[in-house]
Amino acid sequence: MATESSRNTTARDTTVRADARRNRERLLAAARTVFAEHGIDAPMATVARLAGVGVATLYRHFPTREALVRGAFARQMETCGRALGDALAADDPWTGLTHLVETVCALQREERGFPAAFLDAFPETTAAHARSREQAERDVTALVRRAQASGALRPDFHPSDLVVALVAHCGLVAALPDDARASRRLVAYLLQSFRAAPSAGPLPPPSGLTLRGLPLPPPEGGASRTPRRS
122-149: string of b/e by CB count within 10 Å (b at 16+)? Predict the structure, then answer.
């Protein structure tokens, strides 16, 4: 029979493990927010402060910045991988391609270009995942070819066009991070432009953006700004 002391020790250990899991999840959520808003060079102390823990706690879970970035990015990588797998498995390749584009663009809205910054910041990570990315590129090319063979995707579409579209959407999200309607409408326009035949489907509601509300280029060393409305 367990003694009172051993029961108390087990209870304390369980509480410590639960607290550690909660702290880790708070740190990952805070990291995604901070990196999205300030880039992955933001101070680690900023992440700890937003998570409501001390810097020492952060470093116990993530000894290096790279470890924190990897942890924060893991879910997005898994989501992209599943989306590509689902797209390839779809009976209708056009439905699969649409699902892939919409999923990746939704992640761009959520993370504001953080995945691209991650790959740029850690060349060794790029090398480590080279084979995975090459396989992903082969899978995307296969999906494009299937969609073209079905007659749904325009015959002059090239896999690199998908990259161009995602870069364009990433730029929109960076300029208008809070305008989800503009994002969804652009994605719908892009998908319609990919089709071999014009689509009669309705577009999502338009954004409320006006020419006077266009973000202005940032002054040197400053943040972007929006024109003052009269």
Answer: beebeeeeeeeeeeeeebbeebbebbbe
